[in-house]
TrEMBL record:
It comes from the Bacteria. It comes from Clostridium formicaceticum. Residues 2-244 form the ABC transporter domain. The keyword Transport applies. Pfam families: ABC_tran. Keywords: ATP-binding, Nucleotide-binding, Transport. Belongs to the ABC transporter superfamily. PROSITE patterns: ABC_TRANSPORTER_1, ABC_TRANSPORTER_2. The lineage of its organism: Bacteria, Bacillati, Bacillota, Clostridia, Eubacteriales. This is Oligopeptide transport ATP-binding protein OppF. Transmembrane segments: none annotated. One of its GO terms (biological process) is transmembrane transport. GO terms for molecular function: ATP binding; ATP hydrolysis activity.
Length: 249
């Protein structure tokens, strides 16, 4: 379904006159099957979000390509309605002047022009799917808790019935108990809607909860990949260090 092929990315080093470039991603190759939940775990600064933005077609790689069902993700038509994302920073993920209703129906409007009454039914259905109800329709982002705001972001992300959802640190800034609720919700939606997840995080615990397979990512490179049931068999020292929070080697 998703193929990341030999992707390279550099950014210009900080400093206004700097011509030097910092290598962020090197030779990243990843394949993902339909229906799979793939975790990408790595330390802060390892390039996970950069890879996420390239997979979403928001940024271009310097080399290599990303294909979705064989077509380049740079083409908006390939992404529209099929690929969605939820990011860590739910407060800036939606316009503070928009109500929850407007936030959720924006992607649907881009895809098809539904009638307003059809739209309201659809948005209420989406709210129920993520554990909220119609009392949220007219609320603004500042009237929501972190967990509620992230539920609204998830409702928006699934509103176009995507086949693929990229979750970039989607639970990381929530309290532990709210994290568990959102992980449960994601797991439930994945089964109900048969969505494939690419779950980017630094938190190995949430990966073990949600993912079928994990890729360990260090300094912009894939260092190891393993099925979730074989986590205790990782070979790489970096992977072992990240796993030490959940497994004693
Ligand atoms: N637009 C940009 N311009 C220049 N440098 C950037 C840009 N975006 C990211 N970087 C740099 O690229 C490196 C990787 O950042 P990235 O956000 O991809 O890592 P990450 O693994 O997702 O980290 P975190 O979990 O902390 O978000 C960092 O050194 C960062 O400063």
């Amino acid at each position: 379904m998703l193929e990341v092929k030999q992707v390279y990315k550099t950014y210009r080093k900080s400093g206004f006159f700097s011509r030097k470039r910092q290598q962020i991603l090197s030779d990243v190759t990843i394949e993902m099957r339909k229906g799979e939940c793939l975790g990408i775990v790595g330390e802060s600064g390892s390039g996970k979000s950069t890879l996420g933005r390239i997979i979403l077609g928001i940024e271009k790689p310097d080399g290599g390509e990303v294909l979705y069902f064989g077509k380049k993700v740079n083409d908006r038509k390939v992404r529209l309605g099929h690929i969605s994302a939820v990011f860590q920073d739910y407060t800036s993920s939606f316009n503070p002047h928009f109500t929850v209703y407007e936030v959720i129906c924006e992607p649907i409007m881009l895809q098809a022009k539904n009638r307003r009454e059809d739209m309201e039914v659809k948005v209420v259905d989406l709210l129920y799917r993520v554990g909220l109800d119609e009392s949220y329709l007219k609320k603004y982002s500042h009237e929501l808790s972190g967990g509620e705001a992230q539920r609204v972001c998830i409702a928006r992300a699934i509103s176009t019935n995507p086949d693929f959802l990229l979750l970039d640190e989607a639970v990381s800034s929530l309290d532990v108990s709210v994290q568990t609720q959102i992980l449960k919700l994601l797991s439930q939606l994945k089964n109900e809607m048969n969505i494939s997840y690419l779950f980017i995080t630094h938190d190995i615990q949430s990966v073990t909860y949600l993912c079928d397979r994990v890729i360990f990512f260090n300094e912009g490179r894939v260092v190891e990949q393993v099925n979730i049931e074989n986590l205790s068999q990782v070979q790489n020292d970096y992977s072992k260090r990240l796993l030490s929070a959940v497994i004693a080697f």
